C-alpha cells in the first residue's frame, strides 16, 4: 500500500532541549494509524509538526523530513501551508471547549472553513454545514447550527469539531485525544463515527491517545512513543498480543483489569524494573472484608435526597423545574469505597456536592454518624468540613498558583486549628508529602512546576492533612495518564488501609470504579438504576442502561 505521509529521522528541539529523537514512520492511504503514549512522550508535538503548528521562536525541527504527497512540509512557506492546513490535512483537538470560539455560533465556525477553502456560495455553504452536522449524527442539526458552544454538551461539541475537520474532505485527519474527557458511551459513539467517516471518505487518520485499549478498537496499525522515541510499532493485533517493549507491556497492564482484582496495580516503573505485582484479592477474601464492613453501624446514611433546580428563560415564561437528583437513598460504612458511576448529567457530582454540603439538597436527609447534617448551623457545618473532604478532578484549578504547595497544605490546618504551631504543621506537611510519594524539596515549589500526576498527589496531600473520615473523589483520576492513574489509585487504596478512610468514588470510567469499589451505585437521569456489590453488577447487570455502560468499555484485544 502506498503511503500518503512519510516522516523520516524527525528531531524537534525546544531551545537546546531535544524532545523528539530521530523518529520515522509512514501513514498509508485509507489507513487508521494509532499513536499511543503518555503526557510528555512527544505524540502531540510530532503531530503539530506535520501541520506546521509548532510554537514559533521557541521550537524548531533540527533534523529530518515530513513528506506529504512527495512535498517536504518542513520546507513550505506559511502562505503555502495555509492552503494545505484544514483543507488537505485537518486536526481535531483534545479540548473542544477551548478550540471552539465561544462568541460564534457552531454553524458559523464550520461555514468559515468552507468559505476559506471552497468556491461554494453562501447558501450552498449553509446547506453543506447542516448536511455535515447530520453526517456526524448531531441531534437536531438546525438547532446546533444556531447554538453557541456553551449551549451544547461535551459530546456534541466534539462532533462539531469533527464536522469542522472533515468539512473539506481532507486526505489526512489528525485526531489528538478526541475522547479523553468524554463518557465511555460518548467515547464509543465518537470512535464509531470516525470509523464510519473513514470508510466513507477513504481518508487516512492519525489517532492519538494514551489509552491502548481504545486504540485497539479503531486502529489498523499502532506506534508506541516513550520520551520522544518510537519504542515499538506494528499491526494492532501484534502489539497487543505480543508486545516486545516493557513500556508497551506496562501500558496494556496498568489499566485495571475487568476480570481479576489485583491488590496493587502495576505501574510503568514496575515493568521497567521487572518487579510486577501479581497478588490477587480473591472472591473469598473480598467476602470476608465485606462481612466485617457491613456488620458496623453506617457512617453515612442518605435518605430520599432530592436536588431540584428552577430555571426561568424569560420575563413572562413559567419557571422550569428540573430534578438533578431524585429520591436517592443508600448507606455507607466506615472503610468502604462506594463507586458512583453514570454519564455526564446523571446527577453524580450534584449528589456528591449535596453530601459535602456545598450545594444543599432540596429534600431528604443525610445522616453522618447519626446526625442529620442538612439541619446544621453554619458554624456546625464549618466544623464538619474537617471530617468530610473532597479530592477534585482538576488539581491545578483547585490550587492557588501564587502559593507554594507547602503553604497550600498548611492553610486548611490553620483554619481548623490543627497542631500547636507552624513548625509542627510544617513537620506534618513534610510527612504527608513523603506519604504521597513527594519529597521535602517540593514544599516551596509552585503548582505550575509539577506534572498532572504530581499535582493530583498534592491535592490528595491537602485533603488528608485534615485527617478526614469521609473523602469524595470527584473524577479525581480521569485526566491522568494510564500509569499515573495506576499510581494514584494504589495510593488511595494504601491511604484507605492505613488511615481507615471511607471513599465515595465518582467517575464515568467503569473499569476504574469497578476496581476501586466495594459497592457500586449506577445513576441515570438523577435516579438509581442499580445498587449492589461492584463485581455482581459487572458480572450480571440487571438494567439495560448498566449493560450499555459496560458494553461501551474499551476491552482491548
Description:
This protein is α/β, with parallel strands linked by helices. The protein is built from 22 helices and 20 strands. The protein has a 6-stranded mixed beta sheet, with helices on both faces. It has a 6-stranded mixed beta sheet with strand order 16-17-18-13-19-20, with helices on both faces. Helix 8 links the parallel strand 7 and strand 8. Helix 7 (154-166) packs parallel to helix 8.
Structure summary:
The chain is α/β, with parallel strands linked by helices.
Highlighted features:
globular; 20 strands; 25% strand; 6-stranded mixed sheet; alpha/beta; single chain; 557 residues
Question: What is this structure's SSE topology?
Answer:
Layout (H helix, E strand, L loop, with lengths): L2 E12 L2 E12 L3 E5 L6 H8 L8 E10 L2 E2 L5 H7 L4 E4 L3 H4 L6 H12 L4 H14 L5 H6 L7 H13 L5 E5 L7 H18 L2 E6 L2 H7 L2 E6 L2 E7 H6 L4 H8 L14 H5 L10 H11 L4 E14 L8 E14 L3 E5 L6 H8 L7 E6 L2 E2 L5 H7 L3 E4 L13 H11 L6 H14 L16 H13 L5 E5 L7 H18 L2 E6 L2 H7 L2 E6 L2 E7 H6 L4 H8 L6
Parallel strand pairs: 3-8, 3-9, 6-7, 7-8, 13-18, 13-19, 16-17, 17-18
Antiparallel strand pairs: 1-2, 1-4, 4-5, 9-10, 11-12, 11-14, 14-15, 19-20
